[in-house]
Amino acid sequence: MKILSSMKNVLRSSLIAAIVVSTGAFQLSGSSSAVTVGGGQDCDANAVIYCGAQSTETLISKYTNGTAQNSAKSIHDIYDKFGISAGAVQTMNTTAVAGKVTKTGEVYVNSSATAVANNALTAGRQNMAGSTQVNQNGTVFYTRAPGVSFRSTSIPAFVVMNNGVFQYAVISSCANPVTATPTTTPPPPTPVTTPNYNVEKQVAKKGSTDFSKAITVASGDKVTYKVTVKSTGSAAVTNLNVKDVLPAHVTYVPNTLTRDGTAVTGTEFFSTGVNVASLAAGATTTFTFDATIASDETAATCTKETLNNVGTIHATNLPEASSNAEVAKECASAPTCDAFDIVAGENRNIRVTKFEYTAKDATFVNAVINWDVNKSNEKSAAITDATKVVGQTHQYTADGTYLVSVTVTFTQNGQTVTATGVQCQKQVAFTTAPPVVTPPVKPAATLVNTGAGSTAAMFAAVTALAAGVYHWSLRRRLSL
Questions:
Q1: What are the helix and strand counts (H, E) for the chain?
Q2: DSSP state of 396
Q3: For the segment 320-355, what is each residue's pLDDT rounded down to a tens digit?
Q4: Hey, which CATH number is domain 197-330, 3.90.1150.30, 2.60.40.1530, 3.30.1850.10, 3.30.70.360?
Q5: 3-state secondary structure 16-33
Q6: Helix, strand, or coil here: 370?
Q7: Which of the 8 DSSP states describes residue 169?
Q8: Alpha carbons 288 and 217: distance in angstroms, whole number
Q9: pLDDT per residue over 461-473, tens digit each?
């Protein structure tokens, strides 16, 4: 690099530049361990390294040890500012090639006619018009475009490339560093492909498509579980294993397991797992199956609880992953017999007039009427139509008191349950009154004919008799 510090320097620099241009002397030579670039030397105060370096070996030595005119620290400070590390300099025997930097700011390698970089920026220790002062760790120097200081059209340089892309250059005559804009786009890095995955477990009531992480159902209900595995990495997942070990009170419904809509035979999915040889990057696979919640419970044995079901995956070179779905189990209501009534009729006949029951979580099967509880226990046939219980009739053969009850049978969660109770019992009594005996009717007595003459005669006779008795009684008292 030629610096205008004095007329003497200008003349000397111009002469050196003329020599360089006239001879075009730069080449790759020397030992196999170093790069040599021909050209002149700038042994002046503007050189970053006094007299520059015509080989990479010399450059490395002066950079490491400095010169009488330039300390190693100051050289390091200037190179650091240009992004050239000590490690980069130490490897220039193998990384640098011969090239040149032009006054217009292009950089070329060897004899190529195509620039590998443009918009070059270089440095020097002396100021000149068009330069920018820089203080790097106490070392003051100046940066500028080549056109500010170059007196020739180009100057030989060591050029460092990486995969065909310009990195930096060092002008051989003065060892001044050069940075520039690469004209070649760096090749894209080879993508590193790695597999990865995730798993999501969801559940919905049987027949619903509204899948979620948690639902609430009644004991005995059926649900559908869904396990979705997605390959989220940039490479396929290999030797994928998917399994779902069911918790207690959750029973698999046979022949309902599918993968992506296709039936999966066997039950390995619920023990050792199902193997998927490969799942491409970005692909998903989904397993679904049905299960019954607490199928062995009745309302009497049910316990409210939350059932946690976990789906698990693992694959080659990947850690195990899992996801869970929760089913909150509510207990079903026990069916009940709520009301029963009868009415008595003639000849010891009765008729059912009322029958009511509740079966919120159960299904009516039949009703049986016991016409004579705890005695003959004579029963009706099973009545499978609940609407026909009312209207049932029965006739007793003898008087007495009878207890009549109805027992209702239901199915609940696959179990048979019955319901009865005092509210479904009625008592009826029959008695027969003894027959009423009617006494015979006696004929009326015949009266003596008492006509008018007879009556007078009788009256006279009675009167005479009474008078006689009176006179007798009087004489007797007087004689006493």
A1: 7, 26
A2: -
A3: 999 999 999 888 788 999 999 999 999 999 999 999
A4: 2.60.40.1530
A5: HHHHHHHHCCCCCECCCC
A6: strand
A7: E
A8: 18
A9: 656 666 665 555 5
